[in-house]
Design a protein that fits this description.
Length: 337
């Protein structure tokens, strides 16, 4: 088959890495397009995935997002027309499903946060298949036109599939002077350029300030954008470590004692790897996070002083590994529709 994959954010690189490997191993041709946003292009290079760069993120404003959407749709249509793709796959890229629908290409989209209203109204309605975790109540997806047989659900977390073959690189910490006696905390700022996270949440800056001044902590901050990087750098917090570019975040998480994240993917990566994790997310919690909280695998944070800081020996960790071939099977079911 000829398969088109569109990658529009950093986390999507990780989702598709094992799926692309599976497709190519069985003899399929895979072409990848990517949007310039955050560390997406750096991560593609890090994982050895070649991609055609088409478009960039529209920024904070609705007008900027709309202009970027229109421009990228045109560019993707020009690029994909005549390439004779059999199927197109995306993680939340409504540009891919809309373009594929226009060109008559079966498509599948997957995501694990159901309240990105505009994105899903566009993406799900255009898609042939919508593949999501079974922890998301199906009635929350019906508003997007995603009902069986279009809707398919899988058990567990997407991170348990793409991290199935993952083992941490213990050399990842070598570039920095890490004191092994201090608690290593990995922090991820909020997705403050996303439409579904428009209101300022003071909790993460408070948490960063609290941990960044603690003598017992080394706080490894992984910003999403250069603007966030400059903000953190400007605080000059003594216990903060700030990398200059994309790093092996999964190894950092696996080797850390604790994760505090305002986003979704890093929370779930920590849960999948059995690392204690707090969420400072200020938006409406989705079904996946609701279930993780019920299971005690994710802790909601309301006060930085409530964070339990202690070294982790790994004995309490429980990893869950799932077969990415099952995820690929569900996505490729668009061919059967």
């Amino acid at each position: 088959m000829r398969v088109w994959v569109d990658v529009t954010a950093s986390a999507h690189v990780l989702v598709f890495r094992p799926l692309i490997e599976l497709l190519r191993r069985r003899g399929d041709e895979v072409e990848v397009t990517a949007r310039e946003y955050a560390q997406t292009l750096q991560l593609l290079e890090l994982h050895g995935i070649e991609a055609e760069v088409i478009g960039r993120h529209g920024g904070r404003s609705r007008l900027g997002k709309a202009r970027s959407l229109v421009s990228r749709l045109r560019a993707l249509r020009r690029w994909a027309r005549g390439r004779e793709f059999d199927v197109a796959l995306a993680h939340g890229s409504h540009e891919l499903t809309m373009t594929a629908h226009r060109l008559g290409i079966p498509s599948s989209t997957t995501f694990d946060y159901e309240f990105a209203w505009l994105q899903h109204q566009l993406g799900c309605r255009a898609a042939t298949r919508v593949v999501v975790p079974d922890s998301i109540p199906p009635d929350r997806l019906a508003r997007y036109g995603a009902e069986p047989p279009k809707l398919l659900q899988y058990p567990g977390l997407k991170e348990e599939y793409y991290l199935a073959d993952f083992e941490p690189d213990h050399h990842v910490l070598e570039p920095w002077p890490i004191d092994p006696s201090r608690v290593l905390v990995v922090l991820r700022p909020p997705p403050d350029v996303s439409l579904y996270h428009r209101h300022s949440n003071p909790l993460f800056p408070q948490t960063l300030e609290h941990l960044g001044r603690s003598e017992d902590v080394q706080a490894f901050v992984l910003p999403r954008t250069e603007e966030q990087r400059e903000y953190v750098r400007g605080l000059a917090l003594p216990s903060v470590i700030l990398p200059d570019g994309a790093v092996d975040a999964q190894s950092l998480i696996a080797l850390s004692d604790l994760v505090v994240s305002a986003g979704g993917t890093m929370n779930r990566e920590a849960a999948a790897l059995g690392v204690p994790v707090y969420t400072t997310y200020g938006g409406r919690l989705g079904g996946v996070d609701e279930e993780l909280i019920r299971e005690g695998r994710l802790k909601p944070l309301t006060d930085p002083r409530a964070i339990e800081l202690h070294k982790r020996d790994g004995s309490e960790s429980t990893r869950v590994r799932r077969d990415p071939a099952e995820m690929l099977r569900l996505l490729l079911s668009a061919l059967d529709a």
